[in-house]
Design goal:
The protein is of the alpha/beta class. The protein has a single domain, classed as P-loop containing nucleotide triphosphate hydrolases (Rossmann fold, 3-Layer(aba) Sandwich). It is built from 9 helices and 5 strands; from the N terminus they run βαβαβαβααβαααα. It has helices spanning 17-25, 79-90, 111-117, 130-137, 145-162, 174-179, 181-192, 209-220, 224-239; strands spanning 6-10, 30-32, 99-103, 122-127, 169-173. Helix 4 crosses helix 8. The longest helix has 18 residues, at 145-162. It is globular, with a radius of gyration of 18 Å. The relative contact order is 0.17.
Amino acid sequence: MNNKNFIFVAGLHRSGTSLIYQIIREHPEISGFKNTDVPEDEGQHLQSVYPTAKVFGGPGKFAFNSQSYMDDAHTLATEENATKLFKEWSKYLDTSKKYLLEKSPPNIIRTRFLQKLFPKSKFIIILRHPIAVSFATKKWSDGSTSELIEHYLKSYEIFTEDLKYLNHWHIIKYEDFISYPQKIIDEIFNYLEIESISIKQKIKKDINKKYFLQWEEARKNLSKEELSFFYDKYEERVQKFGYSLKNN
């Protein structure tokens, strides 16, 4: 498995990973899951080596369960499981391609585990404003805004701690992508050291707007004390990822 070149796209549900994945997948030197009849063609649903996000609560919740986290010391991080996982995934991939591409939200807290299985792995991490991610996730989760933001922060804080153990990684902001889509895609392919391709998909530039409006309405229902407590609890942590709950 040491010679398998995997690209793992990581980022929470509703962070824009699916669109980025679909664009990258079109490259002639890359093979990614397609038409698999599983949600968003995610590799987590096409294997039996490790549990899916649903096992640990699903969107907006999975990172709260400590058993969902997987690193290079995990009991499942073995050569046997690397072989098994590759065999299961290869049914849906063209293994003659230079890169094999996979995307699943739990990857954000499993980067070290995936690198242990496939040492040449490259990671593309996608950040999106926590308000947009949290409010977009409400359609799939019964978590409160506070709980969803806490889940966002916990997930990316875990990734940040694991980052120093990764050999190859590239981080992008979804907001940068929708503002300058071709530029960001060019940077991704430059990171992968292959020639870039033109984006065919239509990119919506105001995709976060409706979620910011929902946040504006939600804040009106909070007292000054409640809002102050909310900011005191989360703002500093959010700013570490280049965002703010106060100014969208």
